[in-house]
TrEMBL record:
Annotated source species: Noctiluca scintillans
Similarity section: Belongs to the peptidase S51 family.
Name this polypeptide is given: Cyanophycinase
Keywords: Hydrolase, Membrane, Protease, Serine protease, Transmembrane, Transmembrane helix
GO molecular function, one term: serine-type peptidase activity
Pfam families associated with the record: Peptidase_S51
Keyword Transmembrane helix annotated: yes
Keyword Transmembrane helix: yes
Signal peptide range: none
UniProt-listed Gene3D superfamilies: 3.40.50.880
InterPro entries per record: Class_I_gatase-like, Peptidase_S51
Database matches in SUPFAM superfamilies: Class I glutamine amidotransferase-like (SSF52317)
Lineage: Eukaryota, Sar, Alveolata, Dinophyceae, Noctilucales
GO biological-process terms attached to the record: proteolysis
Amino acid sequence: SSAFRLLGSTQAGSQGGVQACVAMDALLRSFRGLPPQRMLLMSSGLATTKIKKAFAELLRERRPEGDPKVLYVIDAAVGDGHDGRQTYNAFVSQMTQFGVTRVVFVELRNTTQRQLSRMLQDVDCLYVEGGNTFYLRYYMHASGFDDLVRPLIRYDGVVYAGVSAGSIAAGATVATAFWKGWDSPGFGT
């Protein structure tokens, strides 16, 4: 199975190059004895059958015996004005269809790096909710999330599932978030 899921449309001719890069990365990782990087970057979450299947497969690859532990990062939604507890409850309900019973809720803005480190023990999936990208990025950095999760994704094969802001925050820059003009880029300054 491939390390990354290419779902949806791509420009004509570009998909072959992307697949070649993904294949080369997977080959190099296997030579180095590293697990595949497992990322699912979505715009609207687990909204289609194809995306749900890809998510379920990533969880199965990570924890074949079942019952994966998912860390649910809610900050972007809270930064967008959503009720954290209500959003979390809806997420937990959605996770039952994937056989997930262990969901750990985290709001990075209220979490120290030490607390976060404990929450990340034995984690199989980081599910980063959508909302305000700049709010999310600020607290990913301020909480130490960045430093703690990079090695988990790169070297331990932990799944990263990002929705909208959670997907953008996984990239090299959050410049993509400027296009819509909805998020406040002044947060944290």
